[in-house]
Protein backbone atom coordinates (compact mmCIF):
# COMPACT_ATOMS: atom_id res chain seq x y z
CA UNK A 1 0.00 0.00 0.00
CA UNK A 2 1.25 3.47 -0.83
CA UNK A 3 -0.22 6.98 -0.94
CA UNK A 4 -1.35 8.61 -4.16
CA UNK A 5 -2.03 12.29 -3.61
CA UNK A 6 -4.08 14.10 -6.25
CA UNK A 7 -4.45 17.85 -6.06
CA UNK A 8 -7.57 19.39 -7.53
CA UNK A 9 -8.83 22.95 -7.29
CA UNK A 10 -12.53 23.70 -6.80
CA UNK A 11 -14.60 26.82 -7.33
CA UNK A 12 -16.80 28.44 -4.67
CA UNK A 13 -19.65 26.05 -5.61
CA UNK A 14 -17.50 22.99 -4.97
CA UNK A 15 -17.08 22.22 -8.68
CA UNK A 16 -13.65 21.03 -9.78
CA UNK A 17 -12.05 23.35 -12.31
CA UNK A 18 -8.37 22.44 -12.31
CA UNK A 19 -6.26 19.35 -11.78
CA UNK A 20 -3.92 17.05 -13.66
CA UNK A 21 -6.04 16.92 -16.83
CA UNK A 22 -6.21 20.68 -17.40
CA UNK A 23 -2.56 20.93 -16.32
CA UNK A 24 -1.52 18.44 -19.00
CA UNK A 25 -3.77 20.19 -21.52
CA UNK A 26 -2.06 23.54 -20.93
CA UNK A 27 1.36 21.92 -21.34
CA UNK A 28 0.17 20.29 -24.56
CA UNK A 29 -1.07 23.66 -25.86
CA UNK A 30 2.36 25.09 -25.07
CA UNK A 31 4.06 22.25 -26.94
CA UNK A 32 1.77 22.06 -29.98
CA UNK A 33 0.78 25.72 -30.32
CA UNK A 34 -2.86 24.72 -30.75
CA UNK A 35 -5.79 23.81 -28.53
CA UNK A 36 -7.08 21.45 -31.20
CA UNK A 37 -3.72 19.67 -31.56
CA UNK A 38 -3.32 19.53 -27.78
CA UNK A 39 -6.76 17.93 -27.39
CA UNK A 40 -6.00 15.47 -30.16
CA UNK A 41 -2.66 14.51 -28.56
CA UNK A 42 -4.56 13.67 -25.36
CA UNK A 43 -7.30 11.81 -27.27
CA UNK A 44 -9.80 14.37 -26.00
CA UNK A 45 -12.62 15.97 -27.94
CA UNK A 46 -11.88 19.57 -28.93
CA UNK A 47 -15.18 20.72 -27.41
CA UNK A 48 -14.26 19.12 -24.06
CA UNK A 49 -10.82 20.75 -24.11
CA UNK A 50 -12.34 24.12 -24.97
CA UNK A 51 -14.86 23.70 -22.16
CA UNK A 52 -12.11 22.90 -19.63
CA UNK A 53 -10.13 25.97 -20.63
CA UNK A 54 -13.16 28.28 -20.62
CA UNK A 55 -14.39 27.02 -17.25
CA UNK A 56 -10.95 27.51 -15.67
CA UNK A 57 -10.71 31.00 -17.21
CA UNK A 58 -14.11 31.89 -15.80
CA UNK A 59 -13.18 30.77 -12.29
CA UNK A 60 -9.70 32.29 -12.36
CA UNK A 61 -10.80 35.58 -13.89
CA UNK A 62 -8.12 35.72 -16.57
CA UNK A 63 -7.42 34.21 -19.97
CA UNK A 64 -5.27 31.09 -20.11
CA UNK A 65 -4.69 31.19 -23.85
CA UNK A 66 -4.37 33.75 -26.59
CA UNK A 67 -5.91 32.62 -29.84
CA UNK A 68 -4.23 33.52 -33.11
CA UNK A 69 -6.36 33.66 -36.24
CA UNK A 70 -5.09 31.74 -39.26
CA UNK A 71 -2.90 33.26 -41.89
CA UNK A 72 0.35 32.36 -43.57
CA UNK A 73 1.41 29.99 -40.78
CA UNK A 74 -2.12 29.07 -39.74
CA UNK A 75 -3.90 29.84 -36.47
CA UNK A 76 -3.16 28.54 -33.04
CA UNK A 77 -3.04 29.22 -29.34
CA UNK A 78 -0.35 30.22 -26.88
CA UNK A 79 -0.44 30.40 -23.11
CA UNK A 80 -0.78 33.82 -21.56
CA UNK A 81 1.78 35.02 -19.03
CA UNK A 82 -0.90 34.65 -16.33
CA UNK A 83 -1.47 31.03 -17.39
CA UNK A 84 2.25 30.26 -17.21
CA UNK A 85 2.46 31.77 -13.73
CA UNK A 86 -0.67 29.92 -12.56
CA UNK A 87 0.62 26.64 -14.01
CA UNK A 88 3.95 27.10 -12.24
CA UNK A 89 2.25 27.84 -8.90
CA UNK A 90 -0.18 24.92 -9.27
CA UNK A 91 2.66 22.50 -9.99
CA UNK A 92 4.73 23.79 -7.06
CA UNK A 93 1.71 23.40 -4.76
CA UNK A 94 0.88 19.94 -6.14
CA UNK A 95 4.46 18.74 -5.67
CA UNK A 96 4.59 20.13 -2.12
CA UNK A 97 1.33 18.34 -1.26
CA UNK A 98 2.65 15.06 -2.65
CA UNK A 99 5.89 15.42 -0.70
CA UNK A 100 4.00 16.20 2.51
CA UNK A 101 1.80 13.16 1.95
CA UNK A 102 4.83 10.91 1.56
CA UNK A 103 6.34 12.29 4.76
CA UNK A 104 3.10 11.89 6.75
CA UNK A 105 2.25 8.41 5.47
CA UNK A 106 4.60 6.45 7.81
CA UNK A 107 3.17 8.27 10.85
CA UNK A 108 -0.31 6.98 10.11
CA UNK A 109 0.59 3.61 8.58
CA UNK A 110 3.82 2.58 10.33
CA UNK A 111 3.41 -1.13 9.55
CA UNK A 112 2.95 -0.61 5.80
CA UNK A 113 5.83 -0.60 3.33
TrEMBL record:
One Pfam family from the record: HTH_1
Domain spans labelled HTH lysR-type: 24-83
UniProt protein name: HTH lysR-type domain-containing protein
Amino acid sequence: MQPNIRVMLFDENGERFFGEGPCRLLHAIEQTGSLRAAAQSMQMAYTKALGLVRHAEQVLGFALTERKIGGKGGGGSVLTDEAKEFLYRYEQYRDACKQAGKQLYPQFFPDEK
